[in-house]
Each structure stands twice: as C-alpha cells, then as structure tokens.
Amino acid sequence: MGGRFSFRRVALLLRSDAECVCPALLKVTLGAGFFLFLYFLATYGYDGSGIISVTTDAAMRWKGSVSKGCLVLAMVFGPSFVYAGMARPDARLAFMMRPASAAEKFVGRLLLSTVGVSALVLLAVAVADLLHLGFSLAAGTSDGLRSVMASLARETAGSVSDIFRPAPHDWPAALAHGLNAVAGLLFFQSLYLLCPLLLARGGFVVATFSAVVCRAVFVALRHCLPDTVSQSACDFMCMALGLLLAVANYAVAYRSFRRMQLVNGKWFNI
C-alpha cells in the first residue's frame, strides 16, 4: 500500500493485533504475576512474635530490583516476538492483506513487541503486587503494607539518577556513561528484532549468542585502548559504535520485513 505514512493506520493495526492476542496474553500475564508473587514470598520470615515479615526495607528493595530486571529483559527480548500470533498460515495471510504499508506494519509490530510486552510485564508486576498486599494484609506484617510497584518506581528512578548524576566537575563522564547504557539497550534490542526476521527457526538462540559475542568484543576493545584514553572518551566511543550498529540492525530488519512474502503459508525473504 502506497501513500504517506499514517499513524492512524498504525493505531488501527495495534488495536487489531491487541484484540487478536489479548485473551491469550492476559492468561500468560496473570500466570506470570502469580509466579512472580510466589517468588516475592521467598523473603518471608518471622520477627519473633509470630508475625510474618515480608515488607522490610531490604526485602522491598530486592523485590523492586527483581521487577526492574524483568522490565529491562522485556524491553530487550520483546522484539523477538515481532511475529507473535502468526503461527498459522491463515493468520499470516490476514496480516499480509491488511490495508497498510510495510513501514506501518513494521512500526506497529515493533511497538507491539516492545511497548506492548513491557506493559504486560508491568501488569504482571501489578498483579503480583496486589497478591503481595493481600498476603501481607491477611498474614499480618510488622513492617506495614508496602507496594512493590512503588519499590519498582524508586529502584528505576534511582538507577536512572545514578547513571546520569554527574560527579563533581565530571558531568561529561556521567553523560557518556548514561548514553552508553541507552545505546547498549538499543543495540541488544535491535539484535532480538533482526534475528527472528532473518531466521525462521532459532532466531532467539542466535540473537542471544550474538549478544554474548558482541558484549565480549566490546569488552575486549575497551581493554585494548591505551591507558591515556579516559573512561568518558571510551564510553562515548562505545556509545557511537552501539548506536551505529543498532541503526544498521534496524535498517536491515525493516528491509527484511518489507521483502517478506507468503508462499504456501510460509514466510520467504526474497
């Protein structure tokens, strides 16, 4: 479909995809929230008076850190679900026949597999938080009722502020470190988008192996630099390289997505 890029069509695609996969994803999210709640209960203990303690400062910081880790993993691994819901040939045919351009379909699936998956992880944490609050209320706790979502917000805000908080007279180093972290996230995210598009099977495994190799190469390159190169300069170089590779991965992924054709119910990149 030609014409200008339309955000309205992207929104319609997102709504259609959400309606198709929403029931199954809600079940998975509720199940993930329950298992996350069980994982949170690993910190329970007794304060000596028979009252269960699950909301100590250390326990809540740990639960916030676990939730933050799940959210980061969702942002990195989410693009690997770019073809989620299209296992059947009829679903693939319906996707190809939608009245939207390749760019609109690509942006829609990318948003669904990144923002959508991250939102589902937040929903799973919220479900676990509600169960956690209910358990604390029913069992009794000497530390009061405390929210895991609030701990997640504090841990996330603390991590962001730690990355970008400049040391005295050293704000370039803090800025370089923060931008390097963002570039690394975008690069690894682009790997998990590209490999499933290029490979019909084993895309996630190949992306994981590539991420490990690339991480090792980045570390080796940093150690090969002379000692006269400052840490901030090294971070800026890694940031530039990471962003360059991420843009290249996204470009190749879009080109692969645009050239994808459906033949006898199977995807072919021609």
From TrEMBL:
Does this UniProt record's set of keywords contain Transmembrane helix? yes
Membrane-spanning ranges: 21-46, 66-85, 106-128, 174-195, 202-221, 233-252
**Keywords assigned by UniProt?**
Membrane, Transmembrane, Transmembrane helix
According to the lineage, what is the superkingdom?
A: Bacteria
| Name of protein | Uncharacterized protein
**Species assigned in the record:** Marseilla massiliensis
